[in-house]
Amino acid sequence: MRALIAAATGLVLAFALxxxxxxxxxxxGKTSPKPLLTTVPAHP
Length: 44
What we know:
Protein name: SPW_0924 family protein
Structural class: mainly alpha
Order of helices and strands: H
Distance between the termini: 72 Å
Oligomer: single chain
Region (Disordered): 25-44
């Protein structure tokens, strides 16, 4: 019985954590204006 209560408590806590993270939403970020380098620069 204790294992069942522990499993149910863990499930509720995990669900609450997922809801909290979802409610916070995605971070407001910007993309970099500089393009990413896709090739290695030539060595002198």
